[in-house]
Amino acid sequence: MNKFILLTLLSLTFCVEQFERFAFIQFQKFLNKYNKKYDTVAEYLLRFEVFKKNLKRFSQNKTSYKMGINQFTDLTLTEFRKRYFNLNMKLLNKINNKKVSVNSNDAPESWNWVDQGVLGRVEDQGFCSSSWVFTTVGNVEALNKIKTKNFIYLSKQQLIDCDEMSMGCEEGFIETAFEYLTEYGCMTEEDYPYVGYEDTCKYDPSKVVLR
What we know:
The protein has 211 residues and is an all-alpha fold. The chain folds into 2 domains: 3-75, Helix Hairpins (Orthogonal Bundle), CATH 1.10.287; 89-96 and 115-207, Alpha-Beta Complex (Cathepsin B, Chain A). Helix content is 46%, strand content 0%. The protein has helices at residues 3-33, 41-59, 77-84, 89-92, 131-148, 157-162, 174-184. It is globular and about 60 Å long.
């Protein structure tokens, strides 16, 4: 065998072994940090393979944003999209849009709602497909802040548990979520905290702070 080819193969083997060791160590840290547990050895091995592929993708990243290990690194892109990008677009397209006239001459050159204290903190929905809830409640929180000058963190869990037109952590509908809040009102995050899974409805009308 050509000496150059042999040295190349040996070098590639060494690099592969080095990467495998590095990936295994990072995977153990990942499991501990995010308290990940898998039911079977097969699931463990599958998630490790996905984790390694994501590590390679991170190292080859040429985008303007930073990529790194987080709680989603054992998911494929398809799995991530299916779990977290679950808005029902067909229903959204049916919503009647209202035209609003705006005098652009009065608009400032720039405006940052974060600086105005209108947007809440960045939150983690966990493994519940509740993006429809966070979208709905985030809008209501922002509108309430603009109107009252007072920011209140409202309950996301209330919608997951109590909006019977939606399907909790499986799928939800922004339009029906707004309809629910209009009829029943919303409790605070403190009174009805987020747990990240569907549970029995604990709605208490005496604790409604916004309708």
